[in-house]
Design a protein that fits this description.
Blueprint lengths: L1 H30 L3 E10 L5 E9 L7 E8 L7 E8 L6 E6 L2 E6 L4 E5 L5 E5 L1 E3 L8 H8 L3 H12 L7 E3 L2 E5 L4 E11 L2 E11 L6 E13 L13 E3 L13
Antiparallel strand pairs: 1-2, 2-3, 3-4, 5-6, 5-15, 6-7, 7-8, 9-10, 11-12, 12-13, 13-14
């Protein structure tokens, strides 16, 4: 009998060690912060400056397959500047750089952020998350600063999004496209409209002359989207697309 118990305990101990080893391997694969892959691409903008987009692929619990950063080197030969950082999938590395007057707009199209180099030569991050049913958990001043909107315009957007339904706590832009010809930022927000279909609302915003503020122009519904949300317009003349995953047959403007 004692021999039988020893054999049983030995078997159970072996199974336990195997389970522990398997769990350790799974946790290592999931949470390992080791860098897996780097991608990078740069292009000369119409003002002579150099925009570089760099992505790092990571394994880990952060939820983002890639961490992206954009840097800008002025044509004057001044040191490279950090324009902004963001997280997301491979597709969120699709960036458009637009010099306009004394400003530079760096526009990761499929995110809720843009980065603006203002007239003072400082970089500003504008994030478009609009709270609907509830106010910002960090206070209205934080939301005003983050969106660069006036209190009046922010209240209009609050009212609009709250009217879409009480089920939504806040709305996050899924696509932002800077229109150089009109100095506008088109921020597209989505809400479910049915199976595999998304209803889209476009918020048009005007960028101020100094690059510090946005002003609400209007809100309009645009055609719904089925499947993935992708850019729906080409960059304006004078703007340059920089996408590290673009194939070798890239356009002339990115060479």
């Amino acid at each position: 009998m004692k021999r039988g118990w020893k054999i049983a305990l030995f078997i159970l101990g072996g199974i336990g060690l195997c389970v522990v080893a398997l769990v350790a391997i799974v946790l290592y694969v999931i949470y390992s912060p080791e860098e897996q892959h780097d991608v990078s691409k740069q292009a000369k903008l119409s003002n002579g400056g150099i925009l570089r987009v760099h992505g790092r692929e990571y394994r880990g619990p952060h939820g983002f397959p890639y961490f992206w950063d954009a840097t800008y080197r002025p044509s004057s030969g001044a040191p490279e500047e950090n324009a902004g950082i963001w997280g997301g999938g491979a597709i969120t590395g699709d960036v458009v750089g637009c010099p306009i007057d004394d400003l530079v707009v760096v526009n990761p199209v499929l995110t809720d952020e843009i980065f603006v180099r203002n007239t003072a030569g400082q970089w500003k991050t504008i994030t478009l998350e609009i709270y609907g049913k509830t106010q910002s958990p960090f206070g209205i001043e934080y939301e005003l600063r983050k969106t660069s909107l006036s209190a009046e315009d922010l209240e209009k957007l609050h009212s609009f999004f709250m009217a879409l339904g009480p089920a939504f706590g806040f709305f996050q832009a899924q696509r932002m496209q800077f229109v150089k010809s009109s100095r506008e930022l088109w921020a597209d927000f989505s809400t479910p409209a049915g199976k595999l279909e998304t209803r889209m609302n476009r918020v048009r915003l005007k960028l101020s002359e100094d690059g510090e503020h946005l002003q609400l122009v209007d809100i309009r519904e645009i055609p719904s989207v089925k499947g993935y949300i992708l850019p729906d317009r080409e960059p304006d003349p004078g703007c340059t697309r920089v996408y590290p995953f673009e194939t070798a047959q890239s356009s002339d403007q990115n060479k």
